[in-house]
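Changelog excerpt

This revision adds worked examples to the README so contributors can see how folded entries look when concatenated. The first example is reproduced verbatim below.
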Amino acid sequence: MSNATIRPAEAAHFGALAADWWDPKGSSAMLHRLNPVRLGFIRDSIDSHWHADPRSLKPLAGKRALDVGCGAGLLCEPLARLGAEVTGVDAAEENIAAAREHAAGSNLAIDYHCGDVATLGLSGFDLVSSLEVVEHVADKQAFISALAAAMKPDGLMVLSTPNRTPQSRLLMVGAAERLGAIPRGTHDWDDFVTPGELRDLLANAGLVMGEPRGISWSPAKGLHLSDSLALNYIVTAQRN
């Protein structure tokens, strides 16, 4: 397998978590708590981009969606339920096996591939998503360019990633991993991407980044969308 964007050590780290990826109290518990927040942003972005009826249960009917770095399918399955024809890509064979098994048990037809999005030659997708992934890849520009190449000219991209700030170093890398909220070794703070850096990566791939929304945590609200980009943010991108 060509590894233009894949770091084998990263793939091995996440592959080792595959067995309990769907356990909301397991090693991916944080992703389970994060997923509703991300899905809310994605749904609003879908409705805005395609002028969809916000009451529609299947706003992605007739559209193709690609999720890169899909893990065991935590985002792919909701996208399929929103009506999309979904393809998921991940670097870890163990994750793809778990994703296929869970989708079959949920009676969802999702096309899963193990490999590097930069070399799979995928194209023609209306929606391309990659959440909490760009900070783990070997070549960020090659990765973003590959995502852009997979998207239709009038398509929509959604990305989320931790911001490289003193707060994220303290809370996401320090406290969260030390206290077990995130598996140890998940993050390298130096690989976090600031909104300005992501904007440049997208511009180099011919895309315009939308206004980022922060993903924050508070005792009262838990994880929620906010104006603060201090820890993590989610954003859309599209062509001019």
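The second example, added in the same revision:
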Amino acid sequence: MTDYSLSDDLSLALALAGDADLISLNRYLAVDLVITTKPDRTPVTDADKAVERSIRAGINAARPNDSILGEEYGTEGDSARQWIIDPIDGTANFLRGVPIWGTLISLAINGVPVLGVVSSPALGKRWWAAIGHGAWLQAADEEPRRLAVSGVSDLADASISYNSLKGWDEAGYLDEVVALSRAVWRTRAIGEMWAYMLLAEGAIDIVGEFDLQPYDMGAIIPIIEEAGGTFTSINGEVGPWHGSALATNGKLHDAARAIIGTR
């Protein structure tokens, strides 16, 4: 296996995200957007497929020995270096004209995400991180700035995004999320990748949800962790492989988990 520096891999991911933004933004609000329904009853658009094809082509050209896991086209290869792609996180928002959506690209080595890029052209923002390199945000026409989670240490002062009340209910955790909402200062359901990015920016303090896939979380984890936060499953497991997420500023993680409980 050819050795690549993490900086080189991050540069590639950022370039791939730039190409993806051109494709997705061109199809956003398009009157001829093609929408179909997958077997799991979730929507997919021609933009989702085109973005993933573009990213896969770029990875295959630049890192031909690496493997790929993508939402729309599955797994390719079996390398310990695996790129994880969500071409459009927030497809339902994308097709309804809600600007909270973005492309997620990460690289996991031996199952551990080591870099992540979240690019949201409709919001005019891109976030990225690599292990040991910090977490960063660049907004339109601004210089990149380093991210840091909040210093809130008391649940009573915390702001939480629970993302989907229905998701908590279907997972059997409705009572727990209600209990958590009573313990904190402010609750919102911001949703998709943006809630996690606001956590990395220090604007909110806790994000949690269920019914997730590795491509929903792979890019988010390095950004949260490099900003100083903590990311686990609801049950406290590390990595993007366990179907749920609890992300916090770190100071509130144990307190939030104590209310949510473990099953």
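Reviewer comment on example two: The domain at 6-146 is CATH 3.30.540.10 (Fructose-1,6-Bisphosphatase; Chain A, domain 1). The radius of gyration is 18 Å.
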